[in-house]
Amino acid sequence: MSIDEKVGAIFYEEDKIPEKFRLQDPVVQNEYLIKGQLRIWSGPMQEVLSPVWLKGATGFFQKTVGSYPLLTERESLEALDAAILAYDSGRGPWPTMPVCDRILRVEEFSRRMLEKKDEIIHLLMWEIGKSYQESEKEFDRTIDYIRNTIDALRDLDRASSKFVAEQGIIGQIRRAPLGVVLCMGPFNYPLNETFTTIIPALIMGNTVIFKPPKFGVLLYYPLLEAFRDTFPPGVVNIVYGDGRQIITPLIASGKIDVLAFIGSSMVADLLKRQHPKPHRLRSVLGLEAKNAAIVLSDADMGPTVRECVKGSLSFNGQRCTALKILFVHSKIVDLFLERFVEEMEKLKYGMPWEEGVTITPLPETDKTAYLEGLVKDAQLFGANIMNEYGGAINKTFFYPALLYPVNDRMRVYLEEQFGPVVPVVPYDDIETPIQYIIESSYGQQVSIFGKDADTIANLVDVLVNQVCRVNINSMCQRGPDIFPFAGRKDSAEGTLSVTDALRIFSIRTIVATKDIESDKEILTKIVKERKSNFLSAGFI
Ligand code: G3H
Predict the structure, then answer these.
(1) Cβ of 11: how many Cβ atoms within 10 Å?
(2) Which of 140, 325, 365, 452 is the most buried (most CB within 10 A)?
(3) Burial class (CB in 10 A: 0-12, 13-18, 19+), 224
(4) By three-state DSSP, how is residue 281 classified?
(5) Distance between CA atoms of 400 and 382, rounded to whole angstroms?
(6) 77, containing H or E segment
(7) Which helix (H) or strand (E) holds 501?
């Protein structure tokens, strides 16, 4: 069977799916969590269609995963009231709870979450088309992130438990929560990236409202009871629906203290502008990127190509950190392309439950048409599709396309494709990729492939002032999660990592007094008799 025929036959009958991976009855979520209550919703529902199509008796159909509530401004403002009440100007049980008790609650939540692992992975796979193995990895990485966050908080707390004496003043400097946090994560890591903001926000004593991403919503359903049972009422509230209806009123109220958003800069700008006092809104944003690879003339071809294929095509290129444009020295570009095609052809494509699959159907509406448009535009300006069947489409499935030679007249040169299209630009002068990166709207990461230490060192010194991570002979990536994840220009605001996130969702606050006996006695009494949750010398 040719690739073309195989792509044509990529979707098949339900009974051919191994039992373990089949989606049984649709998941109808008619509940939502506000103020510690699972409320019943009887209003309009949003149907969730999987990117996976199935073959039925009368033709192909998109599998229905289930449905979730389309809340309105009213419920959204109720969620806000609940979060404000739970925070209670910093006097609520959660923000005043000793750190060690908050840690216990988060540990309990993580235990409950583990009980739901299979259900969550299953929904993750069906909702966004992520392979089963990658979905499992996303889940496990999230559990690790929670554990690492707890460890980092313990370290932070120990470091802040000492008193500092300086110029006749004694003080204890600790971190205090900020208030109500609105968290919104992306569809490509709907669980992990949302949790990289929710967990640190919660553990630092804030209350949270979160909206699941546009795809990857139902996977939160199995967690609602755990959220309800482990946190005090109103500490976690979840809203669903159209952003304009449910998010605009939240921001416009001026009562959101922190916006944690991972998505497009256009939406981030829109949201920030809606706040009546933007200076009051602390933001942590993970936005677009167009990470480049610079392949030098002495690059070790085998490992370079393997890393570039993985970097540009893992999870169909739907990673903010994906390599989205490859600059390859013209001396080696022919060999590079040949090897790239060979390596690309080894990638398994198919349904997300199939063992070892990398290329799977895409969840975004009209995404294949968008990618087709990018490819056609590039062809118009002189690019060729270098791999057989590159760009072949079957409904939500897009067979990866390697484009060459790409130039600055093509849309794909600047647009973030966020999909399986790989543009290759040949260069002779190293200033070509350097200028591209300098002029780019984005500044997340770059990958350099080569052998010569002097050349690499020179490039490193130029590029560290343009992006936030320079990868040598390896693809761009966020992990390990203890590394700072940041970006310049339109790529990010603020830094996320296990430790940075704890700082983002809190503020350093000092309790100070004069270094005189009477005041020291008061401090000693407070600490010794554990009269305060904030002032303490306890070791957790
Ligand atoms: O989509 C952006 C993710 O943060 C990328 O994470 O590099 O580990 O795939 P990753």
Answers:
(1) 21
(2) 325
(3) middle
(4) coil
(5) 19
(6) helix 73-87
(7) helix 498-504
Beta carbons of 481 and 148 less than 8 angstroms apart: yes
CB of 319 closer than 6 angstroms to any ligand 1 atom: yes
Pick the closest to residue 221 from 22, 46, 71, 30 (CA basis): 30
pTM over 0.70: yes
Q: What is the dihedral of CA 482, 281, 191, 146, to 10 degrees?
A: 40
Please tell me the distance from the alpha carbon of residue 131 to that of residue 188, in angstroms, as a whole number.
12
In short, whether 469's Cβ falls inside 6 Å of ligand 1 is no
For the beta carbon of residue 39, count every other beta carbon within 10 angstroms: 14
Tokens, residue 34: 């506000």
β 258-262/236-238 pair status:
unpaired
Q: Is 479 in the pocket of ligand 1 (CB under 6 A)?
A: yes
CA of 318 to the centre of ligand 1 (A): 9
Span of 7-11, 122-126, 323-327 with lowest mean pLDDT: 7-11
The residue count of the chain comes to 540
Whether 494 contacts 504, CB under 8 Å: yes
Place of tokens 């216990």: 104
DSSP per-residue string spanning 149-184: HHHHHHHHHHHTTS-EEETTEEEEEEEEE-SEEEEE
Q: Please tell me the distance from the alpha carbon of residue 326 to that of residue 424, in angstroms, as a whole number.
A: 5
User: What is the C-alpha separation between 251 and 258, in angstroms, rounded?
Assistant: 10
Neighbours of 60 (CB within 10 A): 12
d(CA 19, CA 126): 14
Q: What is the pLDDT of residues 184-213, one digit of tens each?
A: 999 999 999 999 999 999 999 999 999 999
Cα 118 to Cα 212: distance, rounded to the nearest angstrom: 19
User: Which residue has a Cα nearest atom 7 of ligand 1?
Assistant: 477
Q: Is 188 in the pocket of ligand 1 (CB under 6 A)?
A: yes
Query: How far from each other are the two terminal CA atoms of the chain, in whole angstroms?
Result: 62
- Judged on CB neighbours under 10 Å (0-12, 13-18, 19+), 17 is middle
137: left (phi over 0), alpha (psi -120 to 50) or beta: alpha
CB of 384 within 8 A of CB of 407?
Answer: no
Residue whose tokens read 């709907």: 190
Give the chain's mean pLDDT.
Answer: 97
